[in-house]
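Render this sequence as a predicted structure.
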Amino acid sequence: MYEFVQAVAKLFVRIVFRVRVFGLEHVPASGPLILCSNHQSNWDPVMVGALTPPPVSFMAKEELFMLAPVRWFLLQLHAFPVKRGQGDRGAIRASLGVLEQNGILVMFPEGTRKNRGDMSHLEGGVSFLALRSKAPILPVIITGDYRPFRRMTMQYFPPFDPVADAREAARAPVALSQDATGDLSLGGVEAVRPRVTVDQVTLAIQRRFMAFRKEVP
């Protein structure tokens, strides 16, 4: 059923939003992978789910599951509910379960829709999952205003390891010491492998997105 619903959604967004897709070569056939997109419209999950070739799973706000037809549609697209504004342990377990099963999890790091969708403010949920799962992040940037029959673009970028990025940014040089023979005990400047926080990983993700955003026409 997922393939059928995805095909219908793909046809719809291709016709109505005339979307052009770039960078599909960066999308692997399976995970574990966190696919992160900017978020400017309720259409964003539909766009990403329809145009990403392998099956994906994603969170959707709990209120959407209250209407039976919408709930059916979302479940066919592998969506699961999340309670916004609070720590939803069920949604966290479901997200980690997707990644543990080598799935692709779609997330919107901004947490809610932003008019600009420029990733200038990110929530910590994606960073927490990246730290827990060690899954890489594949950025997606959507541009356009979702006006019918106006051109839109969706561009995928190469996956990256946000934890490694944060660790590199936090890396500090270690002072060398000499032993009794006068030899340098470390043989040269090395670096500590620091533990990183959710905030540091969030900043690393933001830096990547800001850099990729400059590449979008």
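Summary. The beta strands are 19-22, 33-37, 57-61, 79-82, 104-107, 137-143, 152-156. The CA atoms of residues 5 and 118 lie 29 Å apart.
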